[in-house]
Amino acid sequence: MKEKKLNGTVIVTYRCNARCTMCSRYKAPSLPEEEISLDTIKKLPKMYFTNITGGEPFIRQDLKDIVRELYKKSDRIVISTNGFFTDRIIDLCKEFPKVGIRISIEGLEETNNEIRGLPDGFNRGYSTLKKLVEMKHPDVGFGMTVQDKNCDDLVPLFKKAEELNMEFATASLHNSFYFVENKNIIHDREKVAKNFEMLVNELLNTNSPKKWFRAYFNHGLINYIYGQKRLLPCDMSFDTFFIDPYGDVMPCNGTKDKEVMGNLNTQSWDELWNSSQADEVRKKVRHCSRNCWMIGSVSPAMHKYIWVPLFWVIKHKLKFWTKHKYSMFENKVVKDYHDGKITKEELDKCSTCDLVSKINDGLSEASKAMLKDKSGEEFVKEDLKKQGE
Ligand code: SF4
After folding, report:
1. How far apart (Å, rounded) are the C-alpha atoms in residues 94 and 101?
2. Taking phi first (over 0 means left), then psi (-120 to 50 degrees means alpha), and beta for anything else, what does residue 186 get?
3. If 106 and its partner were Cys, which of 115, 225, 301, 339 is the partner (CB 3.0–4.6 Å)?
């Protein structure tokens, strides 16, 4: 029987040099000596797609070894990065010309630097992107986490991506142990939705079927920021997984607390994947009400339930040709809120924003102990100094 390939995300480190306002992971880094080893990576299953992420993955000096190992088992690899370590990125891309690179850019210069908290972050990220384009690296793009502060830059950034012939990925604010956040929330939903609406129309107006499906994804983001039920079922942990720096295999990065299916440092893949612990996590996923809408969990669902986005695309392309653009008010909740039938407080209650509970950062005991003596920021700064950065 043909082996079933999975969709995997490998979180190679929790160390990060950025200071994003919507992600506090930089305050909770992993210890380098505990981070996922090549021996553990060798135990991963066959994958049709692998995302390498962090923290900031390029902080790991052995990232090339990790990519080399992953290419033995994955058809396609995409690395998510803040784009700061230009030389390391270029060097890796020279050795792996097919690897995808997605750089997070949170807006035009001022907004990006304010959100990311990286000195000169925009110019570093943008110059990395330009160098990759100059060397004709085929799979380059940037990603933006859309929120109140940067939503006005959404369409201008999309246009920049078009100019440079690059992929453009979007997300919105999420709360989870992975982001070490529970207070993220969109305040002016209508303003943010309006910008998504403009983006949806830009995407529908292109000649690219891939972008029409992206339009559907962004339509789903409007639904998400209004706290509504996901447009597609979530099947994370069934044919998709995340693995963290400690070798813990999880369904996704959207849960409030870390949900562990097993540990690949100590178990074989088959033992872990077929365990009763993994099945318990799958049961929780079936009843999960967090309604995340992140590309990691939506892209597999869009492929699996292709007729749903396909129907939406056909309907909206037909409307488009008759000069009827997409309207955010097609979402009933958007209209109801606009008409005052639902209050902001009611919508806030539908979000995952939680001002009361304690955040679980998913760190190991050793990483937690390290944070008793110094802050995560100090630790990473010293670490990078040792690396000559
Ligand atoms: S909705 Fe899916 S991706 Fe989000 S937390 Fe639940 S299981 Fe994870």
Report:
1. 12
2. beta
3. 115
Relative to beta strand 77-81, strand 100-104 is: parallel
Q: Which atom of ligand 1 is nearest to the CA of 234?
A: 2
Q: Hey, how many other C-beta atoms are within 10 angstroms of the C-beta on 120?
A: 11
Which atom belonging to ligand 1 lies closest to the Cα atom of 288? 6
Cα separations in angstroms, 329 against 42, 198, 334, 336: 49, 13, 5, 9
* CA of 177 relative to ligand 1 center, distance in Å: 12
Question: How remote is the C-alpha of 295 from its chain's centroid?
Answer: 6
Query: From the CA of 238, how far away is ligand 1's center (Å)?
Result: 12
Dihedral over Cα of 38, 42, 45, 46: its sign? positive
Determine the Cα–Cα distance for residues 158 and 357; give it in Å rounded to an integer. Answer: 36
The number of residues making up the chain comes to: 389
Give yes or no for residue 255 CB within 6 A of ligand 1.
Answer: yes
Query: What is the pairing mode between strands 167-172 and 240-243?
Result: unpaired
Q: Decide whether any atom of ligand 1 lies within 6 Å of the 251 Cβ.
A: yes
d(CA 286, CA 292): 13
254 CB within 6 A, ligand 1: yes
Task: Give the whole-angstrom CA distance, residue 260 versus residue 194.
Answer: 38
Q: CA dist 364 to 32, 256, 312, 337, 382, Å? A: 12, 17, 44, 43, 20
Cα–ligand 1 centroid distance for 290 (angstroms) = 6
